[in-house]
């Protein structure tokens, strides 16, 4: 009896294999005609067929073996692929289930046709065949649904991650906009405050010249100093806007450090000695050439030297350029000035911050300019300061700056 059943199931499997093309077409026509399968209307016949022929082949093998287990992995793989493809094609779960139900009906019709073809197909054998087919298709349906749900969950997780990232970016942009707004308001207040003070002093100097002609020289000298302070304020604003707004790549070139050192000393010495200060300058003889941007290095040094000069009333300003290991070199500017209070160390590099008081001319942009330049030059800023004793800024640069991007 067992051999007879196996032979009949083999015959049914052979019949289904021979009828595979017709079965697939019959199923696809039923899918295309079903009003509930809306997304199926957008697919070609090849897309509709998808992995159904491979699933049918697995079912035929199960009939030949009279057991689903030997082909369970193959059927599972094809079912997962079918579910994944249908998810990519926009199928809903109910559409996927309905489509597989139509495939089941096509197989059911084929089994009935085989039974009516005059073969020795007993009721028990037909019942056994239908149970195997139902078991296989139930497994396909469950596996396909799980794949769709898994893909849906992965997509939701991906969208959630993207949404959270976009939300964080939006919050960061909103914070930046808010900071920018506060910064612009601070710029306006700072400029209005400084320019008003300059203009008031300038007006007083002009009145002094008009009322007391004998003091015209003194009044003119004061007016000239106020004009120079106003020019310094505007120059700092222009330099900062250029540094922040410049998005062009840095022009990396061989920089002759002895030549740059001499240029810095020559440029900074007059202003330093005009205040009665000493300039102490030294260059490491073993440091001759680096790969960097000469003009930006000069900007960093001059801003630090100008800052040190402004905030030092007596003593000296020091400039040191030396090697720091094999891959770095440093630029150090130190002074014996007013120093920075511990509570102010966090804000020294912020725009428009003058931590030592408002009696010092300038917009408070020198160190903000240094910070932006050092970002471009990959410079590491280190500083230490003691209130009333002075400040030391040391910036370590790479010996060979690499091109950006």
From TrEMBL:
What Gene3D superfamilies does the annotation carry? 1.10.287.130, Histidine kinase-like ATPase, C-terminal domain (3.30.565.10)
Q: Where is the Histidine kinase domain?
A: 190-401
Q: Does the keyword Kinase apply?
A: yes
Which GO MF terms are attached to this record?
A: phosphorelay sensor kinase activity
Which intervals of the chain form a coiled coil? 156-183
Transmembrane residue ranges: none
Q: Which InterPro entries match?
A: HATPase_C_sf, HATPase_dom, His_kinase_dom, HisK_dim/P_sf, Sensor_HK_Regulatory, Sig_transdc_His_kin-like_C
According to UniProt, the reaction catalysed is: ATP + protein L-histidine = ADP + protein N-phospho-L-histidine
Q: Which domain of life is it from?
A: Bacteria
Give the PROSITE patterns listed for this entry. HIS_KIN
Q: Does the keyword Acyltransferase apply?
A: no
Q: What keywords tag this UniProt record? A: Coiled coil, Kinase, Transferase, Two-component regulatory system
Q: Name the Enzyme Commission number(s) assigned to this protein.
A: 2.7.13.3
Question: Pfam families attached here?
Answer: HATPase_c
**Per its UniProt record, what PANTHER family does this chain match?**
HISTIDINE KINASE 1, TWO-COMPONENT HISTIDINE KINASE
Name of the protein in question:
histidine kinase
Organism equals Paraburkholderia caffeinitolerans
């Amino acid at each position: 009896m067992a051999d007879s059943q196996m032979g009949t199931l083999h015959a049914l499997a052979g019949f289904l294999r021979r009828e595979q093309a017709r079965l697939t077409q019959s199923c696809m026509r039923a899918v295309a005609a079903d009003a509930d399968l809306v997304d199926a209307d957008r697919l070609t016949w090849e897309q509709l067929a998808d992995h159904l022929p491979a699933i049918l082949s697995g079912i035929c093998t199960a009939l030949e073996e009279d057991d689903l287990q030997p082909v369970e992995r193959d059927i599972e793989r094809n079912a997962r692929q079918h579910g994944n493809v249908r998810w990519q094609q926009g199928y809903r779960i109910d559409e996927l289930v309905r489509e597989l139900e139509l495939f089941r009906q096509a197989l059911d019709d084929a089994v009935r046709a085989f039974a009516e073809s005059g073969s020795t197909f007993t009721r028990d054998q037909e019942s056994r065949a239908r149970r195997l087919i139902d078991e296989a298709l139930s497994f396909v349906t469950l596996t396909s649904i799980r794949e769709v749900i898994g893909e849906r969950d992965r997509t939701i997780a991906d969208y959630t991650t993207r949404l959270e990232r976009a939300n964080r970016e939006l919050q960061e942009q909103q914070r930046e906009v808010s900071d920018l707004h506060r910064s612009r308001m601070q710029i306006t207040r700072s400029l209005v405050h400084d320019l008003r003070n300059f203009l008031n002093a300038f007006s007083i100097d002009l009145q002094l010249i008009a009322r007391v002609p004998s003091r015209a020289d003194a009044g003119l000298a004061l007016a000239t100093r106020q004009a120079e302070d106003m020019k310094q304020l505007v120059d700092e604003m222009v330099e900062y806007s250029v540094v922040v707004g410049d998005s062009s790549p840095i022009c990396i070139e061989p920089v002759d450090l002895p030549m740059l050192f001499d240029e810095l000393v020559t440029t900074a010495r007059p202003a330093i000695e005009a205040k009665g200060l000493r300039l102490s300058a030294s260059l490491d003889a073993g440091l001759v050439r680096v790969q960097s941007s000469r003009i930006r290095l000069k900007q960093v040094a001059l801003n630090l030297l100008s800052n040190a000069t402004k905030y030092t009333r007596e003593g000296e300003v020091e400039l040191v350029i030396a090697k720091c290991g094999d891959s770095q070199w440093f630029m150090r500017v130190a002074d014996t000035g007013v120093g920075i209070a511990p509570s102010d160390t966090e804000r020294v590099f912020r725009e428009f911050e003058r931590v030592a008081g408002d009696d010092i001319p300038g917009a408070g942009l020198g160190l903000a300019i240094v910070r932006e330049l050092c970002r471009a030059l990959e410079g590491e800023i280190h500083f230490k300061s003691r209130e009333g004793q002075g400040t030391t800024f040391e910036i370590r640069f790479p010996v060979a700056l690499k091109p950006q991007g």
